[in-house]
Amino acid sequence: MNSATAGTTPQRPVVAVLGTGIMGSAMTRSMIRAGLEVRAWNRTQARAEPLTADGATVTETAAEAVRGADVILTTLNDTTSVAAALTAASDGTRRGQVLLQSSTVGPDGAVALAQRAADLGLVFLDAPVSGTRQPAEQGALTVFVSGPSAARGVADPVFDAIGQRTVWVSEEPGAASRLKLVVNTWVMNMVGAVAETLNLAEGLGVDPQLFLDAVRGGPLDSGYLQSKSAAVLSGDLTPSVSLSTALKDTRLILDAAEQSGVRLDLTAASVVRFARAEAAGHGAEDMIATYYAGRAPMDGASGVRGEAM
Questions:
Q1: Which residue pairs, CB below 8 angstroms and at least 24 apart, start in 113-122?
Q2: Alpha carbon distance 39, 122 (integer Å)
Q3: CATH number for the domain including 153?
Q4: Domain that holds residue 249
Q5: By CB count within 10 A, which of 65, 85, 255, 260 is most buried?
Q6: What string of DSSP letters covers 67-92?
C-alpha cells in the first residue's frame, strides 16, 4: 500500500503504535482484527513482543515503527512520555503523517503536543479515548477528537477499529481533552462512591452483597457499580485503569478546574484517597483499590490499612 498524507484517503492505513501498555496492546489487537497493518513499539520491547502472535510487527525503535506509516497512534501515560516517544521517532517521521494522540494529557498537554507535532510536520488530532481494558479489547471505546477535519479520511479507519463511537468535537487542539476531563470527573467520582459505600457497609457490618442485591435492576444500579464492587469482593484487582493512572488523571482535572475558576470538592477528595492508596502500595492495581484508602484502623504512616478484604 502506498503511504498517504492527510489529504488522501487510504482504505487501510498503516498504523504505528507507540506504547503497548494495557490500552495500546488492546487497541493494536482491535486494529489487526479490522485488517489494518500495525507496527508496534514500546520503550521496553519485551512488553510489545506478545503482539507478534496477533500479527503486529514489533520494532526495536520508534523511528522504525513510524517510517512509512500513514498514522501514528500514541498510547502512553502522560505529556512527558508522549513527547519523549515523538523525539525517539523523529528520524522516521515525514511531513503529513497523522498523529492520533490518545493519552489523557489535559488541555495544556494537548496544546504542547500539538506544537511538537507541528515542529515535526505532523497533522495533529487530539484523540483521547473513554473506556478501560475490556472495551479496548473489544474495539468498543468512545473516541473524542479535535483537530483538522481534513484528516478524517486517514483517521476514521483507525477510529472505527478501536471504538464503537467517535465524537468529533471541534477543529481546536485541546478541545477533545477538555471533554475527556469532564467525562473523567464523572468516572473518578463514581469510583470513589463505590469504594466509600463498600467501606461503610463493611464498617456497619452490612454484607456488601446485600447492598448490591438491594439496588440491582433499579434506578440506583449501574454496570459500573456491579463490576467495580465485584472486583473488590473477589480480590481481583487486575487493572483496567491503574490507580496511579487514575491519580494522574484526577490531578489533571483539578489543575484544569483551578485554571477555570471552578471548585471541585468531590474530585479533590478523590485525589486524597487515590494518593493514600498509592502510598500503601496499591498504585499498580485497578483504580477501585481506592477502597483501601477508607478502611480502618488506619496505618500511622500511610493512613490506610493494606490487607485484603
A1: 113/79, 113/82, 113/83, 113/86, 114/147, 114/173, 114/174, 116/83, 116/86, 117/86, 120/86, 120/90, 120/93, 121/93, 121/94, 121/95, 121/96, 121/97, 122/72, 122/93, 122/95, 122/96, 122/97, 122/98
A2: 18
A3: 3.40.50.720
A4: 178-294
A5: 65
A6: TT-SEEEE--SSHHHHHHHHHHHGGG
Give 143's strand partners: 129, 166
Cell numbers that stand for 100 in this block:
492520533
Number of domains in the chain: 2
Which residue reads 477528595 in cell numbers?
269
- Residue where a domain stops, chosen among 172, 192, 225: 172
Note whether 165 and 143 are within 8 A (CB): yes
